[in-house]
Amino acid sequence: MRFAAVFLAALVAVSACSKPTPPVGKWEGGTESGGTLVVARVEILPNGQVKIMAPDITNVMGPRERIDQLRARLSADLTNGWSEVQPRSFEFDGKTFRKPGGIAPQMVWDKSSNHMTLQLYIGARPAFPVPLRPVDDFHDNPFGSA
Q: For strand 115-120 and strand 36-44, is the pairing parallel, antiparallel, or unpaired?
């Protein structure tokens, strides 16, 4: 009995020190705010590597028709370029993804909703949050998919 208690305590201690496993799946979304358009895809592979692509256009102005054309162009760029994206490693603490050795959050995962927020850094601006929703398969138009 004493051996079982010691073994259980050791097992709990080891599991408490283990790194959290990133959630496997696909997320996508698009956002438009303050003259910036972004579409994004994220795929976390079973080995924990992450494929990510987020084309953007900044300083967007003009009539709605022009903005809609730019949204369509970004969506097409995302779809057409996805096959070229190479997986990379991130550090994951159970909620936040960071570049290895990095400080700035790159993505934040909400376990309760399975939604992801991409933190996009454009130039010297503060992080631009791009909300992403989980999907079974990627869509041609991340702005319009449900």
A: unpaired
**Amino acid type, 49:** Q
- Let me know how long the chain is: 146
CA dist 75 and 31 (Å) reads 11
Backbone angles phi, psi at 98, to 5 degrees: -135, 155
Report the DSSP beta bridge partners of residue 30: 39
The reply to whether the predicted model has a pTM over 0.90 is: no
Closest CA to 44 of 81, 97, 84: 97
Range of the domain at 86: 22-135
Is residue 49 domain-resident? yes
- 110 lies in a domain? yes
Amino acid letter, residue 136: D
Residue 123's pLDDT band (cuts 50, 70, 90):
confident
Strand pairing category for 105-110 and 91-92:
unpaired
- Would 4 be classed as within a structural domain? no
Q: Pairing relation of β-strands 105-110 and 115-120?
A: antiparallel
Tokens of 53: 């692509």
Q: Residue 85: inside a domain, yes or no?
A: yes
**What token pair was written down for 57?**
């256009």
Average pLDDT of the chain is: 88
Count up the domains in the chain and report the number: 1
